[in-house]
């Protein structure tokens, strides 16, 4: 096999990441050497590869689905929002500066297109197949001339395109038709057909509509994927994540001990890598919820202050909402608090920031003996160490440099009483360490909670990826998808007017 495919979507969150990962896992099962690719990703959830490059966590997850090591080639452009109108641009895994949306789309696209096409060509020379994920919708006609992630990369690579639509939102037939009709004739030539996602009910009731869609567009539907609960894959995110009331509950098994353990995660602005708490939610008897009010911390056994792309902004937000005072009361009472990356920084005594917020000197919450200075160089690392007598692996993504001036050492951060802080993302995925940490939390909280002795976060993640592969294998026309990947888009597909100018 040799070839590729672009998975586009009628909208953001249509299911492109899930479908891309599912196709990667399905092909890997067949013995195909496959790699994921997303030319440009906008996300605050990122990962550090072994060579020290920062890429989107969704592409790292897709690489795991493909059973290959993630690399910067798989996500050459990453945009990390830092405000309403600007983002940090990460090129080939390294930050190259802040840029407004207008500035980003205003003149660098040809150079970026050359870079992403070069990355794609290198992947095609290494793997049997490359499964590309688009971004947003290919029918964003206002951005088509500067597009490097949807039809721009499909045209450059001559890849067939399958458009995914979320039927759970409604209007999927109009979305499929409208998405295709808004494309230029040259772009429409590459659109092979459609994939329905998140369907609930009897597929036979949907089939007349699929037949009518085929009659209207000349393009077939390559599968109807059922709505699947419990897909705990790493997510992309937008500029703001609104998680009030969102709860991630362990569904693996009932608690081992007599009590559950309640974890409250402060939903700070520009929250990054909130996937850090997924390993906690995977533990039987641990309930994780995201909160934004001080009273929601009252019954929490552990409060997590997560990473953020806006440390000073998050600090102000905590103070405005009374969460800062609530955290101080918890620390004084000996009730557990964990700060990760930006959350670790806000727990310190002092922040000097002329880089991220340019706010200068700012007083921290003073819960940890730490002084933070923001450096223009970003720390990107994959540290390995020990804490609580157990081996720990993690990854670091931060501009803030922490000077620890007291307390007990903890994962290159520190601990004072029951307040813990570290720059290490992903540390809770180390099973033995997570169990020891939760045992400490339960002791301090006075809970009769016992961590399950055999929970493997890596195994649970593999189960999730296998579930994605099952969705493709059982509900998509895999023979037809193989034909697309190997042979490209069928010729002679009709043009649907009105098309947008190319």
TrEMBL record:
Q: Which keywords describe this protein according to UniProt?
A: Cobalamin biosynthesis, Glutamine amidotransferase, Ligase
The species is: Streptomyces spectabilis
**Active site per the UniProt annotation:** 341, 425
> In which pathway is this protein known to take part?
Cofactor biosynthesis; adenosylcobalamin biosynthesis
Which SUPFAM superfamilies has this protein been placed in? Class I glutamine amidotransferase-like (SSF52317), P-loop containing nucleoside triphosphate hydrolases (SSF52540)
Q: Cross-referenced HAMAP family, in alphabetical order?
A: CobQ
One GO MF term on file is:
ligase activity
Q: Does the keyword Nuclease apply?
A: no
Name the family. Belongs to the CobB/CobQ family. CobQ subfamily.
Q: Report domain CobQ/CobB/MinD/ParA nucleotide binding positions.
A: 6-237
Concerning Pfam families, the annotation shows: CbiA (PF01656), GATase_3 (PF07685)
What is the designated name of this protein?
Answer: Cobyric acid synthase
Statement: the UniProt record of this protein carries the keyword Ligase: yes
The processes (GO biological process) annotated in the record are: cobalamin biosynthetic process
UniProt feature coiled coil, ranges? none
* Task of the protein: Catalyzes amidations at positions B, D, E, and G on adenosylcobyrinic A,C-diamide. NH(2) groups are provided by glutamine, and one molecule of ATP is hydrogenolyzed for each amidation.
Q: Which domain of life is it from?
A: Bacteria
Quote the gene name from the UniProt entry.
cobQ
* Start and end residues of each CobB/CobQ-like glutamine amidotransferase domain: 262-432
């Amino acid at each position: 096999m040799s070839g590729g495919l672009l998975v586009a979507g009628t909208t953001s969150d249509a299911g492109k990441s899930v479908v891309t990962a599912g196709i990667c896992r399905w092909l890997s099962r067949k013995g195909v050497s496959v790699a994921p690719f997303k030319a440009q990703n906008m996300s605050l959830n990122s990962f550090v590869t072994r060579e020290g490059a920062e890429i989107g966590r969704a592409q790292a997850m897709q690489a795991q689905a493909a059973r290959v090591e993630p690399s910067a080639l798989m996500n050459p452009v990453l945009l990390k929002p830092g405000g309403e109108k600007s983002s940090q641009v990460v090129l080939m895994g390294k930050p190259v500066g802040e840029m407004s949306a207008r500035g980003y789309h205003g003149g660098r696209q040809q150079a970026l297109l050359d870079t992403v096409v070069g990355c794609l060509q290198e992947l095609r020379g290494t793997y049997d197949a490359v499964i590309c994920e688009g971004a947003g919708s290919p029918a964003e006609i206002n951005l088509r001339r500067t597009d490097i992630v949807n039809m721009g990369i499909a045209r450059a690579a001559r890849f067939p395109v399958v458009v995914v639509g979320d039927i759970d939102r409604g209007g999927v037939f109009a979305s499929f038709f409208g998405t295709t009709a808004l494309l230029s004739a040259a772009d429409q030539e590459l659109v092979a057909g459609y994939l329905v996602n998140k369907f609930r009910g009897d597929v036979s009731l949907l089939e007349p509509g699929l037949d009518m869609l085929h009659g209207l567009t000349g393009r077939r539907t390559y599968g109807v994927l059922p709505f699947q609960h419990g897909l705990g894959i790493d997510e992309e995110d937008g500029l703001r994540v609104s998680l009030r009331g969102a709860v991630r509950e362990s569904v693996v098994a009932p608690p081992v001990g007599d009590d559950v353990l309640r974890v409250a995660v402060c939903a700070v602005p520009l929250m990054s890598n909130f996937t850090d708490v997924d390993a906690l939610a995977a533990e039987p008897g641990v309930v994780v919820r995201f909160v934004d009010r001080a009273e929601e911390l009252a019954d929490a056994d552990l409060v997590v202050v997560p990473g953020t792309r806006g440390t000073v902004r998050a600090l102000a937000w905590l103070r405005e909402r009374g969460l800062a005072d609530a955290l101080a009361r918890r620390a004084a009472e000996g009730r557990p608090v964990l700060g990760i990356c930006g959350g670790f920084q806000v727990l310190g005594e002092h922040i000097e920031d002329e880089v991220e917020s340019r706010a200068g000197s700012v007083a921290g919450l003073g819960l940890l003996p730490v002084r933070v200075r923001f450096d223009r160089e970003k720390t990107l690392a994959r540290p390995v160490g020990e804490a609580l007598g157990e081996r720990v692996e993690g990854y670091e993504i931060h501009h803030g440099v922490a000077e620890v001036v007291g307390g007990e050492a903890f994962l290159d951060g520190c601990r004072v009483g029951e307040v813990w802080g570290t720059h290490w993302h992903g540390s809770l995925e180390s099973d033995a360490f997570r169990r020891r940490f939760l045992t400490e939390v339960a002791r301090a909280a006075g809970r009769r909670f016992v961590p399950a002795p055999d929970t493997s976060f890596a195994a649970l993640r593999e189960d999730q990826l296998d579930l994605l592969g099952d969705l493709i294998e059982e509900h998509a026309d895999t023979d037809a998808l193989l034909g697309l990947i190997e042979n490209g888009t069928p010729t002679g597909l009709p043009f649907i007017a009105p098309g947008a100018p190319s």
